[in-house]
Design brief:
Strand content: 5-15%
Helix content: 40-55%
Largest sheet: 3 strands, antiparallel
Number of helices: 5
Distance between the termini: 48 Å
Oligomer: single chain
Structural class: alpha+beta
Amino acid sequence: MELDLVRYSSEIYEFLSVQTLRDIDYGVLDLSDVKDCRLREVLHFLEELFTMELKVNYQENETGLFRVQVSRGKYCYREFGHIIEADSIGELKELVLGENRIWYVFDEILAQECAGYI
């Protein structure tokens, strides 16, 4: 039986957020209140993807900002093949938020060191 993702599109969209990422990062994400078993299955899958991506960021990211790297003097936000580039962290943040994408600081110290970001 195929899963009808359109049926759950609003719940999925709501789940893919800074709050969800923060809850995963802090180890407090709780999906027990999701009564629909099929939706819960989808959200658990997305949780696993976010968890893996966050782990990679902790291991390989030097900016302290989720999905943000510095490449050839530019700040780059990379999300599954979609790239946003800017000359400064402030400009990048505006562009990322303008596209309604996740802007998450997972390491305050690294983020502050990254071009004086606060």
